[in-house]
Amino acid sequence: MSHESDTIQRAAAEFIHDRHRLSAFVGGLLRDAHAAEDVIQEVWVRLAAEVEKGTPIENQPAWCRGVARNLILKHWRSQKSAKVVADSEVMEAFMEQVDVAFAESDHAAEDEWQRRQQALDDCVAALPEKSRRMLSLRYEARQPVEEVARATGLSFDAVTKSLYRLRQALADCVERKLAQTQ
């Protein structure tokens, strides 16, 4: 796979992951499902073009919201009603505040994800080797449960139950660690 196609795939994955937030942002401001979908599609087209050109985009969700914001303003201004034009000026100020809120949310979500990932890493490291191996086979190597059973010498049911218990124990451990750091 080429570097360019890998970069496009990463951008696409992030776009898809954040699409619901972008849709909420655009849909809430346009209140027209068809126009909102047009804006979202145009944001993707512009994002893909920038990624293909090699333009570095540090914060893709914020970049997409900025493009969407400009497209929404263009849409509002294309409406002939004086009320829509006047409202677009008020809404432009409002959108700046919404963008700030999204940016703060992006940073908070990233910080929370990093805290959770560190807690999970610590919890996995504290497990016995046999449990870590089972988790590694199933979730890192993406082996089916049947293969994990063969590799560990356990029955299918034993592996299924063990993985369930490990997930529960890890979830509890992560929550305890997060509670300790707050």
Describe the structure.
With 182 residues, the chain is an all-alpha fold. The chain has two domains: 3-113; 126-181, Arc Repressor Mutant, subunit A (Orthogonal Bundle), CATH 1.10.10.10. The protein contains seven helices and no strands. The chain starts with a helix and ends with a helix.
Poorly predicted tracts of residues: none
Helix content: over 70%
Largest sheet: number of strands, sense, barrel closure: none
Percent of residues in beta strands? under 5%
Overall geometry comes to elongated
Mean pLDDT: 84
Brief descriptors of the model:
single chain; 182 residues; Arc Repressor Mutant, subunit A; mainly alpha; 87% helix; 2 domains
SSE blueprint:
Layout: H1 3-30, H2 33-53, H3 60-78, H4 82-125, H5 129-140, H6 145-152, H7 156-181
